[in-house]
Amino acid sequence: MAKYKITQLKKDCIGCGACAAVNPDFWEMDEEGLAHLKGSKKVDDNWILEVNTLEAKTSNQEAADVCPVQIIKVEEI
Ligand code: SF4
User: Fold this and answer.
1) Residue-wise pLDDT tens for the chain (77 aa)?
2) 12 Cα: distance to centroid of ligand 1 (angstroms)
3) Would you state the pLDDT for residue 2?
4) Which residues, at least 6 apart from 57, have a Cβ–Cβ distance to it below 8 Å?
């Protein structure tokens, strides 16, 4: 089964809310007004979550596509 890694460079988030608007299953706005990838773990400056369904990959790619500062990445691992 394919696995995918979702990565967010949170320190560059501008808090626009677009990712949470298009993909609320995975994204929420935190108490600081920045996007949080639900269930993700912090590794250095990145927040990372691994998923293993095409639906999760697709919905997070939508979040990546709408991010105006391009800090969300989706890659197959
Ligand atoms: S779309 Fe990008 S800049 Fe906007 S809240 Fe989400 S991660 Fe932050």
Assistant:
1) 789 999 999 999 999 999 999 999 999 999 999 999 999 999 999 999 999 999 999 999 999 999 999 999 999 99
2) 9
3) 87
4) 2, 4, 51, 74, 76
Report pLDDT for 1.
76
In the chain, where the domains are located: 4-76
Going from the C-alpha of 68 to that of each of 41, 52, 71, the distances in angstroms are 23, 26, 8
- Ligand 1 pocket, Cβ-based, cut-off 6 angstroms: 8, 13-19, 35, 66-69, 71-72
Closest approach atom of ligand 1 to CA 17: 5
- Alpha carbon of 21 to ligand 1 centroid (Å): 10
CATH number of 4-76: 3.30.70.20
Work out which ligand 1 atom sits closest to the CA atom of 14. Answer: 3
Query: Which residues on adjacent β-strands are paired with residue 8?
Result: 47, 72
